[in-house]
């Protein structure tokens, strides 16, 4: 039923439910892994099997998604991804990215709530003079919060060192990806592969620099997840961003390998564009992170 | 149009059979059926657990469960009802109806559709497993026991070990909801039949379009909130710990940024259902279609700026409480537009009172009751008195049971002929309706009185002066719970093809594309899109 008037509906697929088994193992194993590794609040004590279930779940999930995507890639090569189905995929990816934006929104909201309201209130602002007086009278409200109410001391990450370089790296990667996109549209395959490869290298470079920054924070600055709300927000926000850069890089590597096999054309480039949209989304999130977490 | 669909059915029905049909499905009707049965089973599970609560509260003192287990009962069944019964019920309806209503061959992304469904039973295994182990396996720690809202620090610092299973179960439910919502929204935007412009869509489709947008927008916020709880629990962060510069109230803000739009996620599709049923049995078009659309959209938009009315008692600045009070009251304007439009639709209509219409009328009356108590709760000085009392319990059960759940039941009565090809049994239906209607009010109405008199919610025991009301509340609860067995029997009869066969247009006044195809609807419908004038 794949004539040009009809919408392609796959007959059936085992992958959704098989993937669910993997997702369940990831979630169940992950919860146990975290508990057994941190040793706090352990539901199933006396074992260290959580990590194996977790690893099995992740591998299961990845293998299933690979097989699932193999089906969709074959459909794409078979010429089914045209017209309305193509639009469905594009809309779906767009709304998925919107949900990701809202996920980061929860953390940006937390950041602004904390620095504009919580920390000043702990310092006695507004009607909270007695809170300050009775709980932690020596506490000084400030941002970045380098001395917490209970006295933990840390340092703030300077924006104009590695973070600025990382900003440049990511912005450059967006430019190279756009050059690759134009090359795809113009059918210049070598240029496409070259600039996409450069984008991947820049993505990996960003992750490397971010890891260096984390290492420096942990070993030299006393800036850790345990260092109060500033460290919490810093690591969780930049960390989730780093996870998304990792996913985006893998996504770009997959579409690059398909480019090298001769996939994608001006007419049939959904997966390539999806990876590119995702990359630009990650890039824009970083700009907001750089301004609100590092700079201001 | 019905002939078009019928001829197409012959040579396209060759999907898998047996268990593969359900496990590997890519068919919106089969997946819709799975969702609806899952929702019904969770409704019965959650209801059974709620009966334990009512048994314990039937008399003062401790009778059946210890207070620790009671706390788990105020947590897990709430999650089961919200994420297991109401939301999947609406998604099941969307699966069955949205493609047929807009003239689409299926949902836009059929495999992802099946994934959205199958995540749910696994997520609830994870969540309910903790309660089963807590109840039956000696020595196992408690199930989540902090209320469905999982406020920090009850969930972060003091949460039992099972909290992490709760967190990952919530993540799985969130993934399921977001993928389901993306599917609905893409189907509506992309697969409408030629001529089905946005302002010609049935109201149920409109309500789901807006609901899907809300789901995609706020489920990630819940994921963020519980992720911060996970980090506070295990990785030493201080999001909700004032000693590290954080704030437990931050959790409440993030949670209710999800939680308030969430309550509209649970009622907007209900509005859509009522807007389909009332015109059919009034034999008049829906009054004020355009204003209905704008009302739904404005309810959804305002729902993003009202969340802190759940938190009037936490000590916000005065300007904040005033802002959230007025924005909350604003919502009653578009909601009032909807109620009055339904009434105007019935005005001078040729009314008949078949079963779906009975449920729809009960919805309009009782949901309005819940809405008005919500208006009382929106008033800050009054709310400080009502906060965390049974008045709040009465309010949200009027909007969620006699609102959301009644609308799902009304929808099942209305569209069962289309799904099963059988008319629902009138005898069982009347028994179900009248028993439910009387018992549900015996169950929830006195909660207003004990709440105003000061009985706090979520306690395993209460002062003696509340005993009489609580006895009757419990009687109402058991009665209401047992009444649902009529509904189960009725649904099973239709599923087993017993009773009177339904015509294609099962209800005389029914309009809409879904009534153009035979009953039961063929496995595939509208593979060639119909043309809408």
Secondary structure topology:
The complex is a heterodimer of chains A (296) and B (533).
Chain A: H1 15-38, H2 50-77, H3 83-122, H4 129-134, H5 162-186, H6 189-221, H7 229-260, H8 270-295
Helix pairs in contact in A: 1-2, 3-7, 3-8, 5-6, 5-8, 6-7, 7-8
Chain B: H1 2-10, H2 19-23, H3 28-57, H4 67-73, H5 76-102, H6 110-136, H7 163-190, H8 203-234, H9 248-265, H10 268-282, H11 289-302, H12 318-346, H13 355-378, H14 380-386, H15 390-420, H16 426-452, H17 467-495
Helix pairs in contact in B: 3-5, 3-6, 3-17, 5-6, 5-7, 5-15, 6-7, 7-8, 8-9, 8-10, 8-11, 10-12, 10-13, 10-15, 11-12, 12-13, 13-15, 13-16, 15-16, 16-17
Polypeptide structure, described:
The complex is a heterodimer of chains A (296) and B (533). Chain A has 8 helices and no strands. In chain A, helix 1 packs antiparallel against helix 2 and helix 5 runs antiparallel to helix 6. The longest helix of chain A is centred in the middle third of the chain and has 40 residues. Chain A is globular. By secondary structure, chain A is an all-alpha fold. Chain A folds into 2 domains: 80 residues, Orthogonal Bundle (Helix Hairpins); 207 residues, Cytochrome c oxidase, subunit III, four-helix bundle (Four Helix Bundle (Hemerythrin (Met), subunit A), Up-down Bundle), CATH 1.20.120.80. By secondary structure, chain B is mainly alpha-helical. Chain B is built from 17 helices and no strands. In chain B, helix 12 runs antiparallel to helix 13, helix 13 runs antiparallel to helix 15 and helix 13 packs parallel to helix 16. Chain B is globular. The N terminus of chain B is likely disordered. Classes of the chains: A mainly alpha (296), B mainly alpha (533). At the A-B interface, helix 1, helix 3 and helix 7 of A face helix 2, helix 6, helix 7, helix 8 and helix 9 of B.
